[in-house]
Amino acid sequence: xxxxxxxxxxxxxxxxxxxxxxxxxxxxxxxxxxxxxxxxxxxxxxxxxxxxxxxxxxxxxxxxxxxxxxxxxxxxxxxxxxxxxxxxxxxxxxxxxxxxxxxxxxxxxxxxxxxxxxxxxxxxxxxxxxxxxxxxxxxxxxxxxxxxxxxxxxxxxxxxxxxxxxxxxxxxxxxxxxxxxxxxxxxxxxxxxxxxxxxxxxxxxxxxxxxxxxxxxxxxxxxxxxxxxxxxxxxxxxxxxxxxxxxxxxxxxxxxxxxxxxxxxxxxxxxxxxxxxxxx
Length: 280
Description:
- It is a single chain.
- The chain is an alpha/beta fold.
- It has one domain: Rossmann fold, CATH 3.40.50.
- Helices cover 42% and strands 20% of the residues.
- The protein is built from 11 helices and 7 strands.
- α6 (160-171) runs antiparallel to α10.
- The longest helix is centred in the N-terminal third of the chain and has 19 residues, at 4-22.
- It is globular.
């Protein structure tokens, strides 16, 4: 059984490796889903925001723009390589109200009720105990504040992802995953149940069907290198990698696939104010 420390180490290594393609224009969906997460929050000037598993700032930077110079955003991630890119992007935008730090979000040691919003986009499913992780995030939300957790639904860049795993099984069956961590919360009701199990209240979940265009089959390989699938790619020999790449590109080209389909789930929870809590 994989230990928590091993899971953290593996996740850190995968996304440090993927940093070289993570912000490639082909992967602009990170920014799109990050922005859409923040658009669903009622952030105002002066608010304090915590963004965990923040990557290169896809949701942290929009938060900083929304809360203004009197607000404050803290972004935390395991991958220093991603955080360095986030710092560069925030500096280019002249943002002085945002800080990025390496950290395991389950052990940041931050005070209770210290943020107006706590955000996690495509990150909660990497931890083995998602309920405990949600409890920790909810603990840091102030009364009247919000928790936003964005995750994948049933479809993630299909039909390309399904073929990717079929090709992996043919090339290296030992690397073929029969289960992916986000499957635990790939339904709106299971994501809502997670937040409620973590203590969150007034939970609403919205499912969005998103389409991602491909200008060429090569775009799919770039997406593979810039995301979580990179961990599988890095375990292949150069020869295996070349065959897998050719198989994926050939599949897209032969089937004339120019658009990939995904489902994204946005969960927003609202914490009761102290006044309302006292009345219950």
